[in-house]
Amino acid sequence: MPDPDAPPRADRPEAVLPLVHEALTAGDVDAAAALYAPGALLHAWGRRLQGAALHGMLASLADLRAPIRLERAEVASPAAGDLGRAVVAAHWHVDAAVLGAGCPIDVAVDVVAVVAVSAERGWQVVEETWTTAAGDALSVTDPSPPP
User: Fold this and answer.
1) Least confident of 36-50, 93-107, 129-143
2) Domain total for the chain?
3) How much is the pLDDT for 75?
4) Which of 41, 80, 130, 143 is 20 to 30 Å from the Cα of 112, by its Cα?
5) What is the pLDDT at residue 70?
6) Cβ atoms within 10 A of the Cβ of 27, count?
7) Residue 101: exposed, middle, or buried by beta-carbon count in 10 A (0-12, 13-18, 19+)?
8) How many CB atoms neighbour CB 122 within 10 A?
9) Strand locations in 28-121, DSSP E?
10) Would 144 be classed as within a structural domain?
């Protein structure tokens, strides 16, 4: 019988990003973070985030409690010469979230992730990039420019 408290586990590359999406939409940052490999790198709006900083970015997005639609997630290609890795592309749409200042937003986010498989943890994100039509101008955590 599966453990209901176990973190989500992706059984194929294209399942990783939908599971991250489900966890963030539910506000479960720990479940989302469990789908990132140790040492994973997130490129988000001009920042390179790892460890606690990556967890913080996921928490900021989860804390919005905004409707997030996953419009697609597909394997773009296997990573060059590596059967245990793949490149996955997705498109998320955050609908009319309200930030702390009361400003409504409606943001489309393109996601490209390199995912890898391990026997213990299934498929996980090892490196990911988030971009928007606004480019690097948007940050859900801090409106100040990157250092």
Assistant:
1) 129-143
2) 1
3) 84
4) 143
5) 84
6) 14
7) exposed
8) 21
9) 36-44, 47-50, 68-78, 85-98, 104-118
10) no
pLDDT of residue 40: 97
Q: Does any domain span residue 5?
A: no
Tell me how far apart the alpha carbons of residues 25 and 38 are, in angstroms, rounded to a whole number: 22
Instruction: Identify the helix (H) or strand (E) that includes residue 23.
Output: helix 16-25
Residue 8 lies in a domain: no
User: What band does 30 get if pLDDT is binned at 50, 70 and 90?
Assistant: very high
Q: Which residues are bridge partners to 132 per DSSP?
A: 109
**Element at 130 (helix H, strand E):** strand 122-132
With tokens 């490999």, the residue in question is 37
**What would the pLDDT profile of 114-139 be if each residue is shown by its tens digit?**
999 988 899 999 999 988 865 544 44
Q: Which residue has the tokens 């997030």?
A: 68
Is residue 145 assigned to a domain?
A: no
Residue 143 pLDDT > 60: no
> What residues have CB less than 8 Å from 42, skipping those under 6 apart?
36, 48, 49, 50, 54, 57, 127, 128, 129, 130
